[in-house]
Design goal:
The complex is a heterodimer of chains A (about 350) and B (about 375).
Chain A: H1 2-34, H2 38-48, H3 52-69, H4 71-80, H5 82-101, H6 108-138, H7 167-191, H8 194-225, H9 231-235, H10 241-258, H11 262-284, E1 287-289, E2 299-300, H12 306-311, H13 320-330
Chain B: H1 2-8, H2 10-44, H3 51-80, E1 85-87, E2 93-95, H4 98-102, H5 105-136, H6 140-176, H7 178-185, E3 191-192, E4 196-203, E5 208-215, H8 218-224, E6 230-231, H9 246-275, H10 283-291, H11 295-311, E7 314-316, E8 320-321, H12 332-372
Antiparallel strand pairs in B: 1-2, 3-6, 4-5, 7-8
Helix pairs in contact in B: 1-2, 2-3, 3-5, 5-6, 5-10, 5-11, 6-7, 6-9, 7-11, 9-11
Classes of the chains: A mainly alpha (about 350), B mainly alpha (about 375).
């Protein structure tokens, strides 16, 4: 039971981080293309100035909670993703100083340099976060002792010995880049006015089309790379509401942006991110980190206690679809839980 | 740092997450949110919120960062002096009492000592800025305020750092980490009436101090309150439990203690001058304050080196050696690669910090105030 709560608490932290820091990362990417002069740039940056620091705290809170709730996962994942995590830290540092220090020196070259750095680091961060999530969904080469080490790339294939980057995780990175840039554009339509707002609204259309395409591709790719992701959905068909939510929120973004209702469009984008991430987490649960070296090496939650089973009883009677799916997924079922990943009592 | 536990110290995190994950998670949840939310209000809201609310935001930023410091110190204190834990059959540590974990006596002493050090830094920055304005002969009204606040706060904090916080903390270290105190003081030989080495180079090969300047019996007095007390030297400690970087530990400690003495002396003299209303014209004292600007940063760093090097060779004192805690999967060359990356980045940040702080100080508080609120 505790494991169930902790799993979703960490998930909430991650969703909170992506939804909140997501729009200022997106604004970081966009401000390179969207603004025409120094006034517009200052308006753009001022719209995220007071909040970006607070938004990043969700990442720290998520990391801290993960450490406490799942020390084994935390130790294994953070040492295994060593290089990309360090690069993320460097990018976060560079991004922070570039947005905070640009107004301290009244020199054009200095500002141009820091603006470029801010946009570049924001874009790379979104790609890294997307790729990171894709790495978790695809699985990592966990060894029997529960550790692994991922190089940045190997042969670009998501086989048993993948790298951080392969074709699948690159798709994940692109989804995040486009989704968060769109998220940032919708934020700007709320926070700015006049020509800048018009430009932000116009750029939503191409981003939205790209996002719809990438969402479909990533959905297909995820099922191809880890078919077991579907296990929970077929077992509890009511949860197919999640992909419906993704579709509905995408439609919401389109509609509300066309009707010039920026707040509703932005909230739709928040919902889109929520459904995408919740859907990914649900595809994993109760696995925390799948292994590409065989499901016996998966890091999973403790075997559910009786009351958890009651909680998880299918909400709908078993349909023919779920029965056939259970055969489809049987060979991918998480076999064993080797570790107790749950602290006794919080 | 929260990341570093997992990236570089995976085996340690795996065993100790149930204990030290707790204060770290609470730091993230409580103090970071508090600090960052009110920092945004403080920096951007000055024109939009009332003066009282603005002041309140400043107080909350202070509270947030001091709570943050507390949780970090509690974490370190548990590694220095583990309390309130139980060890499961698989080697993992778990907390028996969260209250006892927070009230670890080591942590309370270390917290008081550390935060007093932070106040010293603030006081010296403020006093040195005031001295700079007065020596330059401009912005003198501000200079006098800065000088007065800086010197009064500096006097109080640099006395508190020695007595009682430093004194009590040192005595606690001596009782609980005898190897650390012996190495810090360069005490190779046990005995009654141990001398205090003011200066000298510990020679691990010969087991003595080169070029020593020693105050006889002083160490016994400082630790136990009597000149005749017996102090445990390194000769009573197995060689494999000596702090690994013994000379560095000894120097770090002496730099911290020496600078601490200088802070107290300088602040006492300046406070006397301030009281006699002669500080603003005593150019030699202003010069001394100005040049002491970087010293608290050095002293605080040296203090942390003393704490962490003194704990060696242990990661969790007496329970887990440092060599048992690092990430097996991260190769040494990967560690070096990222260390070089961080060193380069920190060098850059250090240069930027110095240049920008100088610009802010030299343009004066009024220019900073008018510039701080971005145009909307």
């Amino acid at each position: 039971m505790m494991g169930f709560i902790w799993f979703w608490l960490v998930a909430v932290m991650i969703v909170g981080y992506v939804v909140l820091d997501g729009f200022d990362l997106g604004v970081g990417v966009l401000h390179l293309f969207l603004v025409r002069n120094e006034t517009e740039r200052r308006t753009t940056l001022a719209s995220i100035g007071p909040v970006w620091d607070g938004n990043e705290v969700w990442l720290l809170a998520g990391g801290g909670t993960l450490y406490f709730a799942f020390p084994l996962l935390y130790a294994s994942a953070f040492s295994g993703f060593y290089l990309p995590l360090m690069i993320v830290l460097w990018l976060l540092i560079l991004r922070g100083i570039s947005v905070e220090l640009r107004n301290h020196v009244e020199v054009g070259v200095w500002r141009a340099l820091l603006d470029g750095l801010f946009g570049l680091s924001s874009a790379l961060l979104t790609i890294f976060f997307g790729a990171a999530l894709a790495n978790v969904l695809r699985g990592v080469p966990l060894q029997a002792d529960g550790y692994f080490f991922l190089p940045l790339w190997t042969n670009w294939q998501p086989g048993p010995h993948p790298g951080i980057l392969d074709w699948y995780t690159v798709i994940g990175g692109l989804v995040a880049l486009v989704a968060l840039t769109l998220h940032g554009a919708l934020w700007l339509t709320i926070k700015t006015s006049g020509e800048l707002e018009q430009r932000a609204r116009r750029i939503v259309t191409p981003l939205w089309i790209a996002l719809v395409a990438l969402t479909l591709i990533s959905l297909y790719a995820t099922i191809a790379v880890r078919p077991a992701s579907l296990y929970n959905y077929f077992n509890y068909p009511a949860t197919f509401i999640v992909p419906f939510g993704v579709v509905a929120s995408l439609c919401g973004i389109w509609l509300f942006n066309r009707k010039a209702q920026p707040v509703k469009a932005f909230l739709s984008s928040c919902l889109y991110l929520f459904f995408m991430l919740a859907g990914a987490c649900w595809g994993l649960y109760p696995t925390l980190l799948p292994a590409t070296t065989g499901t016996a090496n998966d890091i999973t939650l403790k075997q559910p206690e009786p009351q958890v089973r009651i909680l998880h009883r299918p909400l709908l009677p078993a349909s023919p679809a779920s029965r056939s799916a259970s055969g489809f997924c049987r060979r991918h079922r998480p076999i064993a839980t080797r570790w107790s990943t749950v602290p006794g009592d919080g | 740092m929260e990341f570093e536990f997992g990236t570089n110290w995976a085996r340690f995190s795996r065993l100790s997450g149930g204990v030290i994950g707790q204060p770290l998670a609470m730091e993230g949840v409580f103090s970071f949110f508090l600090e960052s939310a009110f920092l945004g209000l403080l920096l951007y809201g000055e024109k939009r919120i009332s003066k009282l609310m603005h002041w309140f935001s400043a107080v909350m930023v202070f509270v947030g960062s001091w709570i943050s410091g507390f949780f970090i110190i509690v974490t370190d204190a548990w590694m220095q002096h583990p309390v309130a834990f139980d060890r499961l059959p698989n080697g993992q540590f778990e907390v028996l009492s969260f209250w006892q974990l927070l009230m670890n006596p080591w942590g309370l002493l270390q917290y008081m000592h550390n935060m007093t050090g932070a106040v010293i830094t603030g006081s010296f920055v403020m006093a040195a800025t005031g001295a700079f304005y007065l020596l330059e002969g401009r912005l003198e009204a501000y200079g006098r305020i800065f000088l007065k606040v800086g010197v009064i706060a500096g006097l109080i904090s640099s006395i508190l750092i020695i007595f009682p916080t430093g004194d009590l903390h040192g005595k606690y270290v001596a009782r609980n980490q005898p190897a650390a105190i012996a190495a810090m003081e360069g005490l190779f030989h046990s005995g009654a009436g141990a001398g205090l080495v003011l200066m000298g180079q510990p020679n691990e090969e010969t087991g003595q101090i080169d070029n020593p300047i020693v105050v006889n019996d002083m160490l016994s007095f400082l630790i136990y309150g009597t000149t005749k007390a017996e102090v445990k030297g390194l000769d009573q400690i197995p060689h494999d439990q000596w702090p690994t970087a013994l000379p560095l530990l000894c120097y770090a400690y002496h730099i911290m203690a020496g600078l601490g003495t200088w802070f107290a002396l300088l602040m006492i003299v300046c406070a006397l001058l301030l009281w006699r209303k002669r500080l603003t014209t005593a150019r030699w004292a202003l010069w001394a304050l100005l040049l002491s600007f970087p010293l608290p940063y050095i002293a605080n760093t040296a203090g942390w080196m003393t704490a962490e090097l003194g704990r060696q060779p242990w990661l969790i004192y007496g329970l887990m050696r440092t060599g048992e805690g690092y990430s097996n999967t991260v190769s040494a060359s990967n560690g070096l690669f990222t260390l070089l990356g961080f060193m380069g980045l920190y060098l850059l940040l250090g240069i930027l910090f110095t240049v920008l702080i100088y610009r802010e100080i030299s343009s004066g508080p009024e220019a900073v105030l008018s510039d701080a609120v971005p145009t909307k």
